[in-house]
Every structure is written in structure tokens, then in C-alpha cells.
Design brief:
Length: 455
């Protein structure tokens, strides 16, 4: 698509927003209901697209994509009316007699740029929140997941007029063209590298952004953990979608005394959960397959390691005796490789993690409450779990987002509504009384009264 066409769509969306048609809360809710109906009608086509792009089974597609979207839709349909009400706040005595409130107002024309790893959920979830808040939306799904991008366009074109929601298909050319334009808000999910570029482009227009990025999310297992249960939950979180999950445990940091037991249990869990590799999925493309394959060190593989470039499959793999200097520890893996590092002193383990860029997620398997408190209070990271992995993002009751190098801002549920909303602070001053103490000339009495009111 040419830049001129993109500019025309943006202008049509701006005109639509300025008409006030998105301000009606009941209208927003009706569109969300229609979106839910169409998604339910097209569930089979969504599953087929996700299978073609990533090899996802229908069960995984519903659990991790369609079902999550439907849950967010249900939540916002129930709560948007409440979220959109003005919120009254206390008025200071010095402003007597007046009322004060915050008025939630949409930003305007929003750009949502989504990735390929969970292409349906990570496109539609922020769209839901942006629509609930009263914005128009331009959606740019990933070119790496073309089948899912196509069904997204089909669904959104079915539900919304193009001046309300538009889908821009294409690759880098379209991405660059979009980022040259002025939007009222940009929501980007992707790598920290591209996140820097998005933020740089947005800064030209002083456009606010939410950046959902990534990083190397640690999974700590201490000697007090339930090792068998930890192994089961780690295998689930690590190898789901072949590790192509932004919050997947990137590496395992385990106490030396329980390392061998953990590796044994992880191997047993891999065999149990992935005995049928036909439902295992695939790496998104050759580029990422080659990148992940280069991280494999044959001398450190203790399980798995087989690759097939023709089918884009890489076995669930465990690498032991890994050091911080190894290639696998120099970048986010985003694949089915589990590096094992060890520690003997818990405080040293935490201090090392704190020296690294802030991760999107952190997981701790421990029954020691003091250690749990230490991690949750002192380590900077986006979010995480105690004695589990990745499930913290599967709720509309808490925001999901990163911090530092892993992103800024959050969304889901009420926080998603707030992300796409500007809250105007309004003071409604009454006209029947006008206290003169703020007006010049000031007197000693007025000065005394001001000191009483403002303290």
C-alpha cells in the first residue's frame, strides 16, 4: 500500500472520530458484541489460519488466542459503561464551592502494530481496549503470519466500517509508511530493537506509546521448590508455541543441589507432554529457524537438539553447564531451547539478575516466603508467577506489560481501557459565591486565610 493511501485512511478515521460517532458508549458496546459474534462464527477459519502460520492445534489456538480474545471481549462488554463514566474526586477547601471530576476521553486515531507469535490475540486484544475507550483504530498485523493477518482483515472488515477500523496488510514498507504519520496513540508489540524505532518515530509527533517488548525472562528454582510440579509447569510455559512466547521462561536458574533432579523431571515431562510431535507446532520461518539453530551447542545438549529445516521443527531441547558467556545467553531465545544455569547462594542469584536488562517476566519456584518477598519487592520486571509460568497474562483483572528494556505501559481489562484514554481533570465552579481572597490587592487577612486553606 502506498503512503498516499495510508494518509487517506488516517484522514477518514480522523474525520470519523471528530464526528463524535465513537463517543456513544452504547455504540461501542454494540460493536464489541458484533465482533464477538463474528469471531465465534469464524473460529474454524481462525484455527486453520493459525495452523498454517504456526502449526498450532485447535486446542492451543483456542486456549492461547481465540479464547483469550473472547474472554477480554466479554469483560469489556460488561464493564465499558462503568469505565466510561466520569469519576468524581474531592475538591480542596480553597476551591469552595465547586465539584471536581475526571472525564475519560478517547485519544483519537490509534495505531496497533502486532507481532506474529500470537498473531490473533495480540492484534485483537489491544483493539478491543481501544474500541471500548472510544478510539478509531488502524491495525497493522505481521507479514510473517499472512494467513492469520488475512482472517483478521476479513473479520474486522465484516464488523467495522473502514473509517472506524482499518487493516493495513504488508511488510516493512507499510510499517515505515505508518510510522511516518501522526497518530494520537501507538500500541506496539514486538522486539526491543524495533520498539526503539517505534518510540523514535512517535517522538517526532509527541505521540504517546505503549511498548510491549520482550527480553530474557528468568525462571528461578530453589532447593525448597516442589521439583516435580515445577518441571511440569516449566515445560508447559517454555515449549508452548515452540518457545515463541514473549513471556516464556528464557532460562532456568536452579540451585545446584536440585539441578540433576530438575533436569530428570523436565525430561520426563517433555516425553509426557510432547510424545506426539505432530501437535508440537513449528518455527515461524526459515530466518528464525536458522537464528535459533545457531544457539544450539552440541557439547551442552543433554536432551533433544534435533532440527528439521524442511518442516521448521526444533525438538524441545535442554542445555546444561551453560554460562553467561554462551551464545544462547546473549539474546532472547524465542525458541524451544532451555539453558540451565546454577547458583549456590540465592542473594547472589538475585543480584546477577538485577544487573541484567529488566525482563518482561520472572518466575520463582520456591516455598520460602522470605525469598518470594525478596524477588517480588526488589527485582524489576514486568510481571510473573510464583510456582507457575506465563499464566499471569491470562486475566482481564490485572494489567500486562513490561518495564525498562521490556517495554512501557500495560493493557487488559480496566488498565487496557485506561491505556487508550486521556482523563481530563475538570473543576466545575459554582457562580453563586465568589470568595475574593485570590484576587489582588492582597491584604494581611487574605494572606492569613490563604495560609489556613493551603497547608
Amino acid at each position: 500500500m502506498e503512503s498516499s493511501q495510508i494518509q487517506e485512511i488516517i484522514q477518514s478515521q480522523r474525520n470519523y472520530f471528530n464526528s463524535g460517532k465513537t463517543l456513544n458508549v452504547d455504540t461501542r458496546i454494540e460493536y464489541l458484541k458484533k465482533l464477538k459474534r463474528v469471531i465465534l462464527e469464524k473460529e474454524d477459519q481462525i484455527n486453520e489460519a493459525l495452523y498454517k502460520d504456526l502449526g498450532k492445534t485447535s486446542s492451543e489456538s483456542y486456549m492461547c488466542e481465540t479464547g483469550m480474545v473472547l474472554s477480554e471481549l466479554s469483560y469489556m462488554i460488561r464493564h465499558t459503561k462503568k469505565f466510561a463514566r466520569k469519576h468524581r474526586v474531592m475538591t480542596p477547601l480553597a476551591q469552595f464551592h465547586a465539584s471536581s471530576y475526571q472525564m475519560p476521553c478517547p485519544y483519537g486515531v490509534v495505531l496497533v502494530m502486532s507481532p506474529w507469535n500470537y498473531p490473533f490475540m495480540l492484534t485483537i486484544d489491544p483493539l478491543i481496549d481501544a474500541i471500548a475507550a472510544g478510539n478509531t483504530v488502524m491495525v497493522k498485523p505481521s507479514a510473517y503470519s499472512p494467513y492469520t493477518s488475512q482472517i483478521i482483515e476479513e473479520i474486522l472488515t465484516n464488523v467495522f466500517p473502514k473509517e472506524y477500523v482499518s487493516v493495513i496488510l504488508g511488510g516493512r514498507k507499510e510499517n515505515q509508511a505508518l510510522l511516518e504519520e501522526k497518530f494520537d496513540y501507538i500500541f506496539f508489540t514486538g522486539s526491543p530493537y524495533v520498539g526503539h524505532e517505534v518510540m523514535s518515530k512517535a517522538s517526532v509527533h509527541l505521540t504517546p506509546v505503549t511498548l510491549e517488548l520482550g527480553g530474557k525472562s528468568p525462571c528461578i528454582v530453589d532447593e525448597t521448590a516442589n521439583i516435580k510440579l515445577a518441571a511440569r509447569r516449566i515445560v508447559f510455559g517454555k515449549y508452548l508455541n515452540l518457545g515463541q512466547t514473549c513471556v516464556a521462561p528464557d532460562y532456568i536458574y536452579v540451585h545446584t543441589s536440585v539441578k540433576d533432579k530438575l533436569i530428570h523431571e523436565v525430561i520426563q515431562e517433555i516425553k509426557r507432554q510432547y510424545q506426539d510431535l505432530s501437535s508440537y507446532g513449528k518455527i515461524i520461518n526459515e530466518k528464525h529457524f536458522d537464528r535459533i539453530s545457531k544457539l544450539l551447542d552440541p557439547n551442552k545438549i543433554v536432551y533433544g537438539g534435533k532440527t528439521n529445516r524442511e518442516t521448521l521443527k526444533i525438538e524441545p531441547t535442554i542445555m546444561d553447564h551453560v554460562s553467561w558467556d554462551d551464545a544462547v545467553m546473549q539474546e532472547e531465545i524465542f525458541g524451544p531451547i532451555m539453558p540451565i544455569l546454577t547458583f549456590t547462594n540465592f542473594e547472589d542469584c538475585i543480584n546477577i539478575i538485577k544487573e541484567k536488562p529488566s525482563p518482561l517476566a520472572l518466575y520463582l519456584f520456591s516455598s520460602n516466603k522470605t525469598r518470594v518477598d525478596m524477588v517480588t519487592h526488589s527485582v524489576p520486571y514486568g510481571g510473573g508467577c510464583i510456582n507457575d509460568t506465563i499464566i499471569h497474562l491470562a486475566t482481564s483483572n490485572m494489567p500486562f506489560g513490561g518495564v525498562g528494556n521490556s517495554g512501557m505501559g500495560g493493557y487488559h481489562g480496566k488498565e487496557g481501557f485506561k491505556t487508550f484514554t486521556h482523563y481530563k481533570s475538570i473543576v466545575d465552579k459554582k457562580t453563586w459565591l465568589d470568595l475574593p481572597i485570590r484576587y489582588q490587592p492582597y491584604s494581611k487577612l487574605y494572606d492569613k486565610l490563604i495560609h489556613i486553606f493551603l497547608r
